[in-house]
Amino acid sequence: MDTKQIEVSCPCCEAQLLVDVRTQKVLRHAPPAQLDETGKPILDEGRWESAVGRVSDRKGRSGDSFNEALDREQSREKDLDDLFSKAKDKIQRRKDSDAF
Q1: Is residue 32 located within the same domain as residue 76?
Q2: Contact (Cβ atoms closer than 8 angstroms) between residue 85 and residue 79
Q3: Do 87 and 59 belong to one domain?
Q4: Alpha carbon 98 to chain centroid distance?
Q5: Contact between residue 65 and residue 73 where contact means Cβ atoms under 8 Å apart
Q6: Pairing mode, strands 5-9 and 25-30
Q7: Which end of the chain is more exposed for a tag (fewer CB within 10 A), N or C?
Q8: SS3 for 2?
Q9: pLDDT in single tens digits along all 100 residues of the chain
Q10: Are 53 and 23 members of one domain?
Q11: Total structural domains in the chain?
Q12: Same structural domain for residues 17 and 37?
C-alpha cells in the first residue's frame, strides 16, 4: 500500500479525519465548520501560531533536559574518581584495622 494516510468523513458528525494507515491514529480532525467548500480544512493563522507555540514549548523542554544530561555526563568522570578513591580509602582502613 503506497498511501500512508487517508482522509475519511465521520458518519456521525461529518468531520473530516486524516488517519495514518500504519498506526491507525487520527492525525487531524476538522469539524464541518472548519472546512471549505471542497471539504478541505481551512488553514488560518491562529492554528498555525498555536502549533508553532506547542512545538517551541516542546523544543525548550527537550533542550533543557539535553543540557542537564550533558552536564551530568561531563561531571561523571569526576564522580567516578571520587567513588573510586572512597572505596580505596575504605579498603585501606580495613587493612589497617586488621593489622592490629
Answers
A1: no
A2: no
A3: yes
A4: 54
A5: no
A6: unpaired
A7: C
A8: coil
A9: 457 899 888 888 888 888 999 998 988 878 877 777 777 777 777 777 888 888 877 766 666 788 888 889 999 999 999 999 999 999 999 888 876 6
A10: no
A11: 2
A12: yes
CB 19 within 8 A of CB 6: yes
DSSP letters spanning 12-38: TT--EEEEETTTTEEEEEE-GGGB-TT
Residue 63, classed as helix, strand or coil, is helix
Tell me which residue has cell 572505596: 87
Three cell numbers at 24? 491507525
The pLDDT assigned to 55 comes to 81
Q: What is the dihedral of CA 79, 84, 85, 91, to 10 degrees?
A: 150
Rg (CA), the chain: 29
> What cell was used for 26?
487520527
Q: Compute the distance between CA of residue 57 and CA of residue 69 in angstroms, rounded to an integer.
A: 19
